[in-house]
Amino acid sequence: MLKDECLIVNYNDEVIGSDNKYNVHKFVSGQPKGVLHRAFSVMLFDAEGRLLLQQRASSKVTFPGVWTNTCCSHPLHGQTPSEVDGPETVKAGASTEPTGVKHAAVRKLQHELGIAPGALDPARFKYMGRVHYWAADTLTHGSAAPWGEHEVDYLLLYQLPSGVELTLAPHPEEVSATAWVTRDELQSRMAADGVLWSPWFRVIVNEHLLTWWRRRRAHAGRPLTSSSLRTPAFMVLPHTLNHARVCSRRWTDLPKALKLRPFERICRFDAPPEHRKSGGCHDGVAATELAELCAKEAAFKDWSSPARRTLTLAEEREARRRDLTSQHRSAAAAKANKQGAYGKVRPTPAPPRPALPAASRHEPQIPTLRCLPPTALHLQVPTHAHSKLAQLLHPAEVAAALWFKFGGGGMKASVDTATEADLSFCDAKLGEVSRSFCAVSDSALRRTASPPHTPSITAAASLAVAAVQVIRQLPPNLVVDIMVFYLVLRALDTIEDDMQAFKGAEHKKVANPPGTRP
How does pLDDT run across 158-205, given as a tens digit for each residue? Predict the structure, then answer.
């Protein structure tokens, strides 16, 4: 899972990066629906119209032991031939089809079922469209399942020519069993108790495959083309709270079908209740977001319109915001998130007073932490906790510091700001962020700290300026990298502080963009 790089996509199925299988399938705090990535599902028919099914091996991490379609996997980054398809391959009227996904299908059919690459002609794969769905593997891992699927799934059909039989050699770590079934046999199997089916295949069967397969019988032995399938014009309608059905409005004859292309719209399906995690992260709006998005997208007749694309991206950003700021995230998960150390002050109760004399026990006791005024709190800075005496007990370090500061021992700055405009800009920002950080930390802590602690706080904050001087004096082969790293670190701290300041009140942040806030 760590070796294979899946294609990360946005809700418009545009590739925006890659990550390994382990990371994209984790359903954890911050990404309770994993990371959306591209996938494919192959439905392979023989010449008689029977569909090849597989049962996933019991050793699989996600959905082990379930029955599903012939092959389901992921196109990967870095493969030869390339398995990455651009958006132009799935546009209405496009002259090309997603060949990258077809290359991935040939590769995985060999890996999982032992089908030799030469046994299947990539040109015979019929691309039908895309399905966007998500589902937690609660059947295997329970209601707190840390694994699941969140995919834009490319649907591929393939029919073997008449007289051709495949030799199968399933990989034991991928496939436990296989079966060729008719349409009626598939429906009987799926209606039987005690048989588990993958959530993506149930969506494919209920929303698409049975209508396609019904028309297929009259064309057994011919390559699957649009003429043998129930083909659009499509319209997308909300079906239930957690599904959006794609409905066709007419059948097509052969001459028209040869000019039609697979449906361009992405059909979206939320997880059914049995595939949602407990704890609230999959409740409420999170349980129906794809159905609601599908209903909004249905208002656009032109799927490729910029307005529709903008709407989809805005809805995706809102979904990610909910994932990151959900009130249902556990306290442990929130505590585990990285917190910047600089400028973070941890309030603790003041040390207890000595026991009062017997005559004074009627005096009021120290209030609890919740009621303490700011001046009664100790503000602990979690860095540089050594006392001044402890620091002075290192005479060699003290002498070196004095020499560098007053004795001419300091090194010259390595940043060439005279000839490099970019370095000049970074150097200027380096000074600005250090002074800004020092001023903010010092002024903020002065407002809340009791007077005895002010000098140490000031000294701790001033270390930022010293750090900048050290960075500027690094060797030339290090200074640029460390300078950029420091600036990025400061930027991340600023972002984190901004998120904390508006946590639970994100609407105020939207209403007051940077530059307009008091």
Answer: 988 888 889 999 999 999 999 999 999 999 999 998 899 999 999 999
Tell which CATH classification among 1.20.1250.20, 1.10.579.10, 3.40.470.10, 3.90.79.10 matches the domain 5-332: 3.90.79.10
Q: Which residues in 125-154 are b (16+ Cβ under 10 Å) and which e? A: bbbbbbbbbbbbbbbbbeeebebbbbbbbb
Task: Please tell me the distance from the alpha carbon of residue 505 to that of residue 22, in angstroms, as a whole number.
Answer: 33
Where in the chain are the domains? Answer: 5-332, 366-511
Query: 508: how many CB neighbours lie within 10 A of its CB?
Result: 11
Known active-site residue 14: no
Q: Among 6, 71, 72, 267, which one carries the catalytic annotation?
A: 72
Q: Which residue has the tokens 């019988």?
A: 217
**Which of the following is catalytic: 83, 97, 112, 151?**
151
pLDDT tens-place string over residues 59-77: 999 999 999 999 999 999 9
* pLDDT, tens digit, 9 for 90 and up, residues 427-470: 888 777 765 555 554 454 444 444 444 444 455 455 666 677 77
Q: Is 151 a catalytic residue?
A: yes
With H, G, I as helix, E, B as strand and everything else as coil, classify residue 39.
Answer: strand
DSSP H stretches of helix in 221-274? 254-257
Of 432, 429, 453, the C-alpha closest to 442 is 453
